[in-house]
Amino acid sequence: MTNVDITSVAKTYGQVPVLADITTHFAEGSFTSLLGPSGSGKTTLLRIVAGFITPDSGKVAIGGADVTETPVYARNIGMVFQSYALFPHMTVAQNVAFGLARRGIRGAEAKKLVDRALDMVRLPGFGDRRPKQLSGGQQQRVALARAVVIQPSVLLLDEPLSALDRRLRQEMQVELKRIQRETGLTTIFVTHDQEEALALSDNVAILDRGRIVQIGPPAEVYEQPKTRFAAEFLGDTNFFKGAVSNGALQLSDGTSLRTAAALPGNAKAMVAVRPEKMQIVGDGTEVEGASNRISARIDHVIYAGPALTYVLTAKDGTSLKIFAQNRTGTIHPEGSEVTLAWHPANTIPMEDAA
Amino acid sequence: MPADAIIRPAASPSGAAAGHRLPSWFATAALLMPTYGWLLIAVFLPLCTMLVFSFMNATPMGRAPIVFTLKHYKAFITQPYLVGIAWDSLVIGFWTTFLCAVLGFFAALALARATIGRARETLLILILLPFWTNGLVRVFSWTMVLREGGFLDTLWHALLPEAGSIGFLYTRPAIVLGLVHGYLPYMILTCYIALVTIDDAIIEAAQSLGARWWTILTRVLVPLALPGLTTGAILTFVPVIGSFMEPRILGGRVGVTMGTVIEDQFTQAFNWPLGAALSFTMLAVILAIFATFSGVLRRNAGGVA
Fold first, then answer.
1. Distance (Å) from the alpha carbon of A175 to chain B's nearest alpha carbon
2. A104 in B contact zone (CB under 8 Å)
3. CATH number of the domain where residue A246 is located
4. Could you give the 3-state DSSP secondary structure of residue A80?
5. Tell me, what's the pLDDT at B299?
6. Do B202 and A72 touch (CB under 8 A)?
7. What DSSP element (H or E) covers A10?
8. Chain B residue whose CA is closest to A89
9. Is the pTM of this model over 0.80?
10. Does residue A114 sit at the B interface (CB-CB below 8 Å)?
11. Could you list the mean pLDDT of each consecutive 10-residue stretch along chain A, which spans 354 residues?
12. What's the Cα-to-Cα distance from A321 to each of A41, A239, A251, B113, rounded to whole Å?
């Protein structure tokens, strides 16, 4: 139960920089997701914390102690792998007891801890089975018990739920969160599943080409994305480009969009609006606070029962997407001209300008 | 049954086709025929012939009437020196298998874990290379190395000019050396196949739980490679017990093994029944050894497939 500090860590394979100057802090007891597309360096960062990869430069500290040069076996980490990585020739109990034996804990004491760990992952009485006799979800629970039973300084999860089917994955997300809370372990979780990252984490770090582009609580990262990449990678987003005049964004067709946060000083700027924040309003209808209005034409309607997705084209040619709850049962027909309205607070300026 | 699945879809849609439908055992039998037919002709028949020979009084050539007897199976009692030779053969077999297992396992480990792509292919070819040369040439080249004043001595004297010879041709270690050289590739390949299937994450998991290389080797790698080691041991031990070329060429006077004795019965003494009886006796001994070991291995390895 300790914090993890990464200071100026960089890693290059041949000519390809995989991680570029990463500095970040994982607070004690926190659950942080590293989220990014493949090749963004999220797994490399996790493996550097674990010790499987030595960074070219920079420092890794676990609980205040510099472990950059410490080999994996001496780091006291708990790791869970995508492929479960259970020892196939050992029983479930032997798997869980493996790390305890390396710490000199054997016999009755080890048995007590193993039983407790198996209770925690809700597999009591499974100790004598072989990994092959268990389902994927059960195997991953054993792997989790094996990683947690040694009371590691930090719990590292490398896409642990990716190999499971959708229903099992949702079930395991709940379990994972519960176990993390119960143990209070500082947890770093690598995933490419954004919903999983948002649902589980205290903090989400979005990685792009070897850099952390944004890190913060899920709601902050989702509601206030800083860059186009962060906005696009996490959820769907509509972008408007235009010129800054009088503190507002002037689109090419003359429409003016207001933002709650100050626009950058540049002449050109880009703002992001989440599709569910915009709503279709009747002409002349005022929606309180929704002072940003544009008109657009509906190209497609995707009907999914409780929710509707409209694909539209704005006057200035920007293609848009909006999500609407099917509250009244009325569906705006394709081809119709509508007005969209939303709050300036949901109009987020992007730091990387158009 | 797969054979069923192949035939049914074609046969069931129309009633008329039902008359042409072959019984399901036919497809199974047809698929197995080539393999089992070949085994029958190439392995089982010659073995049966030898078994019949082993009960004959003398080699069935010429006009002498064929008389059946059990006397050749008493050879180990009537000629007690054969027991000593059999023991020597087993000792050579154990040493060769043991050295092959140790060297082969680590070579396979290096091949499977430390190399990638082209380097791995090159190493594999280098390992298989001895297979492509004639066995006799391989064994004779060892005599050039091991004899007094041979290649080994030349190297030795270059370091220590005053020292005596360290050539050990015509000794039991020379026989074992030649046999290890000949049979090592089997062990490397069987261990390699077992080791290459081990997921990297399993090794990493062991490391993350605090295991050092020694623990990983003894608790993870060796147990998981056990099927390969066992197969390799069988592939080495059986032919080594029956080998006669290496003992004869590298062993000289000490190179009397069951292999050479049996070969002598067939080529020199022209006593095929005795040779056959000795072969079957050794086969029984080897099977007894495997039966003993397989029990031990099963208990230690648990449920490893």
1. 21
2. no
3. 2.40.50.100
4. strand
5. 62
6. no
7. strand A4-13
8. B304
9. yes
10. no
11. 89 90 94 93 95 95 94 95 95 97 95 95 94 94 96 95 88 91 94 89 94 94 93 91 86 87 82 92 74 91 91 90 88 90 92 70
12. 30, 10, 18, 50
ipTM of the predicted structure?
Answer: 0.86
H or E stretch at B301:
helix B272-301
Contact of A347 with A293, CB cutoff 8 Å: no
Q: Are B195 and B231 in contact (CB under 8 A)?
A: no
Residues spanned by the domain of A73: 4-229
Contact B64, B273 (CB under 8 A): no
Beta bridge partners of B133: none
pLDDT for B13: 44
pLDDT at B10 over 60: no
Are A52 and B219 within 8 A, CB to CB? Answer: no
Q: Is residue A354 part of a domain?
A: no
Interface check A147 vs B, CB under 8 A: yes
pLDDT in tens, B196-221: 999 999 999 999 999 999 999 999 99
Give me the amino acid identity at B209: L
Q: What is the pLDDT of residue B300?
A: 58
So what's the pLDDT on residue B161?
84
Say whether B215 and A102 touch across the interface (CB within 8 A): yes
Assigned fold of B76-299: MetI-like fold (1.10.3720)
Q: Which pLDDT does position A254 carry in this prediction? A: 82
Q: What is the pLDDT of residues B88-120, one digit of tens each?
A: 999 999 999 999 999 999 999 988 887 677 888
User: A215 with A240, same domain?
Assistant: no
Residue at A94: amino acid letter:
Q
Express the helix, strand and coil content of chain B in percent, nearest 5 each: 80, 0, 20
CB contact at 8 A, B107 and B188: yes
In this prediction, residue B303 carries a pLDDT of: 44
3-class DSSP state of A84: coil
Cross-chain Cβ contact A52/B199 below 8 Å: no
Choose one of A197, A229, A261: the last residue of a domain.
Answer: A229
User: Of the candidates A213, A229, A245, which is a domain's last residue?
Assistant: A229
Instruction: Assess contact for A121 and A137: CB atoms under 8 A.
Output: no
Supply the CATH number for residue A156's domain.
3.40.50.300
The angle at the Cα of A158, spanning A155 to A160, to the nearest 5 degrees, equals 95
> Which residues make beta-bridge pairs with A215?
A205
User: In chain B, where are the structural domains located?
Assistant: 1-54, 76-299
Interface subset of A 189-218, CB within 8 angstroms of B: none
For B22, phi and psi rounded to 5 degrees?
-85, 145
Backbone dihedral angles phi then psi of residue B44, each to the nearest 5 degrees: -70, -45
